[in-house]
């Protein structure tokens, strides 16, 4: 065996100490997490799995205290952690947001609906580890806009329904005026026939052609209106279905607005509560000494 110099021995010993320290640190981290799970200390678990978010939100630190190296040890068990933490988080959310109904879609994964009424809307997903809602952007925007339109005494689809109704009235008018158009067409045909039978002097030929062209244009326009009238029945039926759909959506959003106002007083308060959800939940865990109200099995 080759001789090892004192310098190499010192380097080896230093490397061993550093490795022992890092391994010991990871063991301590995992042991602390294990103890928190065994003691049902959800607050400490949240601190351990995302130290940066915890320090910024709870300790109001300008720079988060993260432990990314150790937190990465949990990459292959995040779903299990989410499943564990979801039990008490859902209990809290059901009290805070009684109009949200949660549905599990996978291990530690949940989506939620707004309300328990017929045709309720899928409103987003829940990030258990972040204690945050990931709202469906389209559905959330509709709800927000509906609140904004209150100032104009309008509902979300008021303008759209008014436009469709106006178009429907125009189509109905085409249908109702069919007899009048038929009479006009018959009159024009008689005039065309009369022009064709009349003998026109050479210097009156241009004027006669112009008169004939005007009558032909009028007849063509009336024929186009007839074609539109034939399609009008189908278009009116489709419009009625669309108005019914939009009115139904307005009704459902009305239920949602009532639910939010009843619980939070205003949409602004609702949004503020969403932003502070992580802090509020951790505060609730701290108030109960970090332990859960529901025993995990």
Architecture blueprint of SSEs:
Elements: H1 6-38, H2 42-49, H3 51-57, H4 68-71, H5 78-96, E1 100-106, E2 109-114, E3 121-127, E4 132-135, H6 137-148, H7 158-176, H8 178-197, H9 205-264, H10 267-275, H11 277-287
Antiparallel strand pairs: 1-2, 2-3, 3-4
Organism: Liquorilactobacillus nagelii
Coiled coil: 174-232
Keywords: Coiled coil, Exonuclease, Hydrolase, Nuclease
Number of helices: 11
Percent helix: 55-70%
Strand order of the largest sheet: 1-2-3-4
As residue ranges, the low-confidence spans are none
Q: What's the rounded overall pLDDT mean? A: 85
Structural class: alpha+beta
Please provide the count of β strands: 4
Rg, Cα atoms, Å: 37 Å
Oligomer: single chain
Beta-strand fraction estimate: 5-15%
* Total discrete domains: 2
Instruction: Give the overall silhouette.
Output: elongated
Folded structure, characterized:
The protein has 297 residues and is of the alpha+beta class. It has 2 domains: 6-135 and 266-287, no CATH class; 148-264. The chain is built from 11 helices and 4 strands, in the order αααααββββαααααα. Strand 2 and strand 3 (121-127) form a beta hairpin. The mean pLDDT is 85. Keywords: Coiled coil, Exonuclease, Hydrolase, Nuclease. It comes from Liquorilactobacillus nagelii. This is Exonuclease SbcC. Residues 174-232 form a coiled coil.
